[in-house]
Fold this sequence. Notes:
The protein has 15 helices and 13 strands. It is an alpha+beta fold.
Amino acid sequence: MSARRRWAAGSESTDRAERWHRIQALRDEWLGHALSTLPADRDATENAISGLYCLLDRPPPTFVWVESPAAAVGVLGPPRSWRWDTDLPLEGRLATLVSGLRHRIGVGYTGWRSAPPEDPVAAMRSGMSSRSLVDSAVHGVLSRVVRESVAGVVRAALGERTGLLWFGQHDVDWIAQFDVIRQVLGARIPADDVAHAELWSTLARSCGWWVPRESTCVVVERPCVVRTEPVPGSLHGELRLHTENGPAMSYSDGWAVHSWHGMRVPSWVVEGPTVDLIAAEPNIEVRRCAIEHLGWPAFIAQAGLALVGQAADPGNPGSELRLYDLPYQRWGTSTRLLLAVNGSVERDGTRRQYGLRVPPWFNDPIDAAGWSYGLTGAQYAQLQRRT
């Protein structure tokens, strides 16, 4: 290779690395806005929302500020019923407006399910386009971290009472994607669309959730507490809501949500798990989280579980199966618990221990394990490895 070609190749590699660093920096900046607990910038928020109403030929609304999403639901009452194929209320027309914007600038719809490459610079060197990288490493990562793990937990806590609303600081996935393709990739976007997108960008930098109606807009202050942990094995700084002590997210009026490794749970799971509460819980995933917090040794001791049998797990070499009797007075039915180790490795390289209720007639843990897969114990014993 000539000196000129070597120089060109080295320069191109440097350009790719620099491009990735700029992409990463903008993504992390927007993630910071999504997790911000600073007081809302009310003037900027109201000006941006008034600008969106103006795009719909509507005068600025009356603003009602509240301290939490639950308070916003309380102000508005139950969501109204309406149809997309008839005259739309303001919130429906606003949804159509932003959907058109996102379609024109090409953001918010691609790449959010695909995992970003482990080495983005090497991926670009191998032919991955910068746009595909942005779709997965910006929109995809922020969708999982913010829209699913953070906003999703809050939305689940509110139930079905919300109607159509916008997430403010939690709308950063497509906004960051737009910012990167404009600033880093140099996409040519019409001035009117840039001005429109900037209104949404201002809201993501300035406030919490907001709920527009014909003449009134309810706006939520940002949370005062947000606690997260890194997603095990993540290569792109992905986070999820989690804390072992107190709410993972709380607002100044006291409304809060609790999360155990990204899963929304009742407050008792985090603040005071007990055997009796675990026994009364119908949701198997909530029970699992509570037992994890309490710890399997403590749970087994406090629940008074009697060991029925134990055996090496033929479907998971190096692990053990343990079969316990569950006390009828606590669990309300005659049943047994099979304690096993997950055959699949977690992203952090560990294997999760889990408990599975099985019928009381099993005395052999291998038979109980086979039953959980629809197999006999003899069939299960022939497995090379389960997942």
